[in-house]
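User: I'm curious whether this sequence folds into something compact or stays loose and floppy. Could you predict its structure so I can see for myself?
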Amino acid sequence: MDVGRATVGVVRLAWADARTAPATADEVLRTLTAAQHQRYASLPPARAARFIAGRSLIASLVHEIVGRPEPMYEIFTLCAHCGSADHGKPHTTAPVVISVSYVGDMVVAAAVASDHATSIGVDIEAVPAGGESAPREELTALFTPSAPPDTRTWTMIEAALKADGRGLRVSPERLQFAAPETANPGWLSVHIDGTDAGIIATPAPAPTGFVVSLALSPVASRR
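Assistant: Here's the prediction. I'll summarize afterward.
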């Protein structure tokens, strides 16, 4: 699998086209819980390919951060809202927080050591025909009476909502990006309903034709 990689501060990123089978698929499967194996087996081929590519990227990032073989740690999902293991945010038993995002066949994963952040979110979108700065008209209903965001802003919103943990249970128009962080240059602080949410967000490197953004909740000592 041809993997692109980048580092943004303490965060590691990796992306790949899921149509290219990961060379480490067997090893990745060994990191999955029984529930995750069942989920993988139930998916149609294209979604199964994205799933295993995402888990492969996560496993490689965890290995980079902790310096130990991936099979020593499990990767699983857990929904903070209903407690289901069939969906929700990805987690690992390693001392690392992780996130994954998909658009079409492209998959991006992000990871950071848990002594730097308590949660992380990553989002990827394809650059639309009108360009990165064109309004996402399909999002008009979500943001009325305000104008819909452009692709960059939308990826930052999505990443921040993932880091928050509630996803779209928080209406996206409630988010604002405040002044740049002094303790974390290049990152913007995220506010929800005008209150600091303890989350920071930033644009991130991306594969050609795509936009990627990151968000995380730094541990208190690093803000």
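Summary: Residues 1-117 form a domain with the Ribosomal Protein L22; Chain A fold (CATH 3.90.470.20). The chain has five helices and eleven strands.
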